[in-house]
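Z., the sequence and structure:
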Amino acid sequence: MKHKKNTFIKIPFRGSGFSYRKNYWISPVVFIVLIALWHLGSTLGFISKLVLPNPTEVVIAFHDLYVTGDLYLHVGASLKRLILGWTLGSILGIIIGFAIGLFSLVRAGLAPIVAAIFPIPKIALLPLFIIWFGIGELSKVNLILFGTLFPTIIATYGAIDNVDRSLIRMGQSFNLTWFSITKKIVFPASLPVILSNMRITAAIAIILIVAAELIAAEKGIGAYIQMAGSLFAIDRLLAGIIILSCMGLIANWLIGFTERKLLKWRNL
C-alpha cells in the first residue's frame, strides 16, 4: 500500500504591507526634480532672482567657499561646538533620565524641576549664558548642552516608564538581580525611544548653534549666514542654509546607522 507524501501549502505572509522597503532611488529622483524645477523657474523668470537665485549661483557660492578655505573654517567651528555640546547633553540626559526612571526619590526631586525648565525657550537664555560664561566657546557649547539635556531626560525616563512590566516580572521570577534586569531588559527596551529622540535633539542642537553664532561669533555657519544676510547675498545665504541641511542629514544617517547596529533584534 502506497502512502501519499505530505504536501505543504505555502501561505503568503499577510503582514507585508507593514514591512519596510529600502527604495534608495526615490530620494535622489525627488531631489533632482526639485532642483530642475528651481532652475527652470529661475531661467524662465517665474522665480525672481532677488527672492531665489539660480542654482548655478549657489554652486558658485559653494565653490568660492571651498577655494577661499572659508568652508572648512566655518563648518569646522560649528561642528566642534555641535559635537561637544550635543554629546555632553545626550550623555548627561541619559544618565539623569535613567536615575529619574529607576529611583523614586530622584524622580520626586528632579522631575518637577525638569518639567519647569523644559518649556523655557533655550534661545532666550543665550544673553544670560553670555553673561555667565562670556562671549567665547563656553557659552555656545553650554547652550547646546542645555538645549539637548532636557528633551533627552524626558525621553529617557518616559521610555523606561513604558517598558513592558511583564518583562520585568519575568526577570524577577528568574531571580535576576536589579542590575541584571536594568541591563538586560530595561535598557534594551528603552533604547529605541532614546535613539529616536537623538534625531530630534540633533536638530535642536543645529538650531541653537545657528542662533548662538548669529549673535556672538566670528566663525561658524551662523556667522556666515549673518554676514551673507547683511550683504543681501542671497546665494551665499542659501549656501549656508544648504550646509546646515547637509549637517542634519549626516547626523540623521549616523543615528540611523547606530540604530541598525544596536537594534538588530527588532528584525529577528
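The two ends are 44 Å apart (CA to CA). The CA atoms of residues 195 and 259 lie 7 Å apart.

Let me know what you think.
H.
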